[in-house]
């Protein structure tokens, strides 16, 4: 069986994060289906549900979807590699990385399917976000929060030494070795 399944905190946390990702996807579909641009519904005095089609990244910075997709896939591969190692030792950092993975994947799929990222929560009539953005911010925040007390923890998470290579790092190293060896024949 998978090693991470022996860790109930990690399994429960991952299922919770996945549930938040599914809820975010459902809210995105709800906003696309039931809200025309500019129409909103009040949840609280300072929170509205509204449809906003974000063609780029944060603050509607227009970057082509192809560039966003390539960068997102690179970040996802890096985080998957790190999760494949960190789940053994650091639950909080692993769950932070899983939150970023789920949030980034959700936004990437939204961009690829719809051609834009669907934002639907407006705060104080100024800032519009979605649940995936919240997952990404909370995930990055938890990684930094739980590595702050150990100055080497963040560096080890970002730049591991050879025995701590994850699945994707080992695969990449094998491909590089194969290419390097085939050139020397």
What does this structure look like?
The protein is of the alpha+beta class. It has one domain. It is 62% helix and 12% strand. It has six helices and four strands. The protein has helices spanning 8-34, 65-86, 91-114, 131-147, 151-158, 167-183, and strands at 40-44, 47-54, 117-123, 127-129. It has a four-stranded antiparallel β-sheet. α1 packs parallel to α3, α2 (65-86) packs antiparallel against α3 and α3 runs antiparallel to α4. The protein is globular, with a radius of gyration of 19 Å. The model has no long low-confidence stretch (mean pLDDT 84).
Indicate the topology.
Blueprint: H1 8-34, E1 40-44, E2 47-54, H2 65-86, H3 91-114, E3 117-123, E4 127-129, H4 131-147, H5 151-158, H6 167-183
Antiparallel strand pairs: 1-2, 2-3, 3-4
Name the features.
four-stranded antiparallel beta sheet, alpha+beta, 185 residues, 4 strands
Summarize the structure.
The mean pLDDT is 84.
Structural domains: how many? 1
Could you give the order of strands across the largest sheet? 1-2-3-4
The unreliable regions are: none
User: Termini separation (Å)?
Assistant: 40 Å
Biggest sheet descriptor: 4 strands, antiparallel
Shape: globular
Provide the helix percentage.
Answer: 55-70%
The mean pLDDT is 84
Oligomer designation = single chain
């Amino acid at each position: 069986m998978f090693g991470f399944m022996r860790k109930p905190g990690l399994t429960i946390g991952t299922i919770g994060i996945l549930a938040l990702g599914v809820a975010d996807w459902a809210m995105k579909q709800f906003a696309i289906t039931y809200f025309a641009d500019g129409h909103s519904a009040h949840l609280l005095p300072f929170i509205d549900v509204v449809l906003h089609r974000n063609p780029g990244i944060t603050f509607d910075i227009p970057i082509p979807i192809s560039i966003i997709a390539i960068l997102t896939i690179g970040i996802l591969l890096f985080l998957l590699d790190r999760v494949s190692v960190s789940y053994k030792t650091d639950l909080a950092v692993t769950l932070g990385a899983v939150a970023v993975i789920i949030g980034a994947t959700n936004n990437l799929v939204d961009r690829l399917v719809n051609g834009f990222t669907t934002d639907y929560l407006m705060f104080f009539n100024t800032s519009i976000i979605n649940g995936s953005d919240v997952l990404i911010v909370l995930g990055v925040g938890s990684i930094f929060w739980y590595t702050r007390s150990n100055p080497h923890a963040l560096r080890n998470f970002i730049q591991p030494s050879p025995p701590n290579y994850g699945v994707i790092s080992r695969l990449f190293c094998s491909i590089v070795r194969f290419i390097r060896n085939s050139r020397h024949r």
